[in-house]
């Protein structure tokens, strides 16, 4: 959680990881077993169901220097707008925006 921006009155379940460059608005609720990586923004009152997955790299590899091979991968941001719901086990691929009060079903 060190360095992450976390708004007031957030609830974070057990076994969650919030990366240092993640941003959570006020009143966000994240259920258990969910990781929120760098460049993920959850606006106010977003609900994230248990074991939801966020990605931040479209071309992940075990090892390669991104500075030397930028064509193979770059970090992409994801924005989840106010009041949206991400269902249990849903996978949110990086580079996308989920609209205000949208509902993403369980995965």
Automatic annotation (TrEMBL):
Domain of life: Bacteria
UniProt keyword Transferase, yes or no: yes
Keywords from the UniProt entry: Transferase
Classification via Gene3D superfamilies: Hexapeptide repeat proteins
InterPro entries documented for this protein: Hexapep (IPR001451), Trans_hexapeptide_repeat (IPR050179), Trimer_LpxA-like_sf (IPR011004)
Pfam families: Hexapep_2
Molecular functions per Gene Ontology: transferase activity
PANTHER family, per database record: ACETYLTRANSFERASE, ACYL-[ACYL-CARRIER-PROTEIN]--UDP-N-ACETYLGLUCOSAMINE O-ACYLTRANSFERASE
Protein name: N-acetyltransferase
Taxonomy of the source species: Bacteria, Candidatus Kueneniibacteriota
């Amino acid at each position: 959680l060190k360095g992450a921006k976390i708004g007031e009155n957030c609830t974070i379940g057990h076994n969650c990881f919030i990366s240092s460059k993640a941003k959570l608005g006020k009143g966000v609720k994240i259920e258990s077993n969910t990781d929120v990586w760098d460049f993920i923004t959850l606006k106010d009152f977003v609900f994230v169901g248990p074991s939801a997955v966020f990605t931040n790299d479209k071309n992940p590899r075990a090892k390669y220097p991104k500075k030397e091979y930028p064509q193979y991968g770059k970090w992409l941001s994801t924005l989840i707008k106010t009041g949206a719901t991400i269902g249990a086990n849903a996978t949110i691929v990086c580079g996308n925006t989920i609209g205000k009060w949208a509902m993403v079903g369980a995965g």
